[in-house]
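Below is one protein, fold included:
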Amino acid sequence: MQGKVLDTRVVAIGKQDFEKLISHNNFYIDKTNFIKEWWENDDDVTLITRPRRFGKTLLMSMVEQFFSTEYKEKAYLFKGLSIFKEDRYQKLQGTYPVISFSFASVKETKFEDFYEQIKLLIAEVYQKHMYLIESEKLNKTEKNHFINIIEGKAERAVIVKSLYNLSDYLSRFHGKKPIILLDEYDTPMQEAYLGGYWDDMAAFIRSLFNSTFKTNSYLERALLTGITRVSKESVFSDLNNLKVVTTTTEKYMDSFGFTEKEVFDALDARGLGNQKETVKQWYDGFTFGTLKDIYNPWSIINYFDEKKFLPYWANTSSNGLVSKLLQSADQDIKEKLEILLQGGAITVPLDEQIVFNQLDTDVNAVWSLMLASGYLKVEAADLSDSIYTLSLTNQEVFRMLKGTVKGWFRESSHYNRFLTALLNCDTKAMNVYLNRVLVQIVSFFDGGKQPSSTEPERFYHGLVLGLIAELEGKYRIRSNRESGFGRYDVMMEPVDQASQAYVLEFKVLDPEEEKTLEESADIGLKQIEEKRYAEELLARGFNDECIKKYAFAFEGKRVFIKEG
C-alpha cells in the first residue's frame, strides 16, 4: 500500500500578489468564495476590519484580478478554485474596470509629508489608466487634470475629487461603473494620531472619502480593509451606504485567517499532523463573528516554512499605539493588563468604533484597539450593554505582550542589576538598584502620577511582575494564589528544584499605622509567616532553607526590601 502523497507546494513568505502565488504553485488556501459572498450581499461600500497579517492584501489582490478587465485573459488563475464552480462567475471574471490602491505605506510624521504621499499615490493610480488620455471620451480640460495629477501639479481641490473623476472617466470608457478597492485605509490615521496632526489629516480624508464613496454616482461598489473601525464621524461623515464588518460581525467569518479544519488538513498534508495541539496553543484563538478557532495565517505559513514554534506574527506587528496607550493608562488599566498576563480574563465596556481624537480621554479605548489588532479575543459578550469579557488570544500574543512590558523596564539601566541581585539573594544590592529603578520608572509607568489607588499595592505588584518577567522559563512565576491561610503576592518556583525559591510580599506605607518603611516591611514578613505562604513550596519538596522570603515596602518612588 502506497503512503499518502504529501503537499509539496512551496511556502511563499510575504507574497501578496494573487497571480504570482497561483502561477508559482505556492501554498494557498482557497478563499475565493469571498467574491461570491461579497457580490451577492450587494452592499455599496463595505469596510472590513481584521488584524494585521490576516490576508487582507492578498484577498484584495484576488478581488482585483477576478473583476478587472486587465485580467480578462487570465481566467486560468481561478481554474479549480471554488469561485469557478458556477458558470455565472466564470462569465463575471474580468468584466469590470477596477481602481485599486493601498494606504499601507502612508506613515508620515507631519501633515505636509502625508499630503505629498497621498498625491504620489493617486498619481500612481492614474498612471495605471494612462490609456484614458488617448480616449475621445475625455475632453481637453479633463486630460489636463489627468496630466497634472500624474506630474504632481494638481491643486488640492482636484486631488480631493481625483478618484471621483477617475470613476467617471472609466465609466465612460468601459461602459461600466468601476469597482474601487482600498487596502489598509486606516494606516495614515494611526500615524496622524501619533504624529499629532489628526485634525488636518481627518479633514482632508473626509473630503476625499466623501467625493469617492458618498457622492460618487459613477461607483459600482467599493471594498475597504483595515485594522480598526474608525468612527464614522471622523472620516465617513454622512456615508449612509457604508457596511462595516468587524471581528464580531458574522459576515465573511471564514474569509480571513485559516479555520481549524483548514490548518489541520494542511498539517496532515505536509506530514505535520502530530503537531496539531501545539500549533493550536500557539496560533489559534482568534474569533470572527460566531466562528471560533481562527488561526493566524502569517504564523501558520511561517511555521510550515521553518518547522519551529516562534512568535512570527508578534514580531511583525506594529504595536506603537497600543504600547503608548498602555504606558499612559491609569492604574485600573494596568491592573487589568496584569490579569491578562496571568492568563485571566477581564470584563470591560467596549465600543468597537475607534475615535482617535478621543483616545487620550477614553480610558477603555485601549481594549477596543487591542481587540481590533488581534491581541485580545472575546470570551463572552452582552451586546445590549456593550460589555465584553476578553482574554489574550494565544501563546504567541502572550509572549509579545510580555516582551512589550519588559521593554518598558529595560529603559532603566539598573534593571538587570536588580535581577542579578535578586538571584544572588543580595538584599543590600536589591535595595540599591530597585530604588534607582523606581526613580526612573514610576513616573514613566504611571503617567507622571504617584500611585493613588484604593489598592496602591497593585501598582507596585504589577511593576515588580514586569521586572521579573524576564525570568519566565527558569522560574514558574505565580501571583495572588492561595497557599497556607491566605494569598501570597508573588511566588517564584525554580524549574530546577536545586535552585532558590522565593516568596515576595508587597506593602505600601500607611502613615497612620507605621512610621517607617522598615516597619511596613516587618509587617509583610510577619504576614508571610503567619499566613504560611511558603506552604505550597514545602509541599512540593523544597526545604525551608531553600526558600527566600522578602517583604517589599513602598512609598512613592522609594522602596525598602527586607529578608525574613
Remarks:
- The first strand starts at residue 45 and ends at 49.
- The chain has three domains: 31-245, 320-400, 410-563.
- The chain has a mean pLDDT of 87.
